[in-house]
Amino acid sequence: MKMSSPLTILFIFLSFIMINHLYVVSSTQWCIATLTATNAQLQDNINFACSQGVDCGPIQPGGSCFIPDTLVSHASFVMNAYYQSHGRIMKACSFKNTGTLAVTDPSYGSCVYGS
């Protein structure tokens, strides 16, 4: 079956849009805590990131990311801040194998994860 010129052009145009859209979606990543990280590991990650110059104010009481007041939420926020400020390389998200990369923005409400 032979496609007409307008259909071929439309197909190429739509393919180009999809390829570019997929690239944009997959090019931004955030570092978050794994579901298997223990509370002790999460607390260690918070302590480490905060000691390395990460702004941990947002996870403090009254901060934009304090609620929900859980270790996994707080750790994910500071782990991502560390990852973003250290070149967005996998090593900066390792946290002794308790960090993982996400392609969906974990921001919520007024808590905005940097990217």
Automatic annotation (TrEMBL):
Q: Which domain of life is it from?
A: Eukaryota
Where does the X8 domain lie?
29-113
Primary localization class, coarse: membrane
Q: Does the keyword Transport apply?
A: no
Keywords of the record, alphabetical order, are: Glycoprotein, GPI-anchor, Lipoprotein, Membrane, Signal
Q: Which residues form the signal peptide?
A: 1-27
Q: What is the protein's membrane topology class? A: Lipid-anchor; GPI-anchor
A Pfam family it matches = X8
Q: What is the lineage of its organism?
A: Eukaryota, Viridiplantae, Streptophyta, Embryophyta, Tracheophyta
SMART domains named in the record: X8
Q: Which organism is it from?
A: Camelina sativa (False flax)
What name is this protein filed under? Major pollen allergen Ole e 10-like
Intracellular or extracellular location(s): Cell membrane
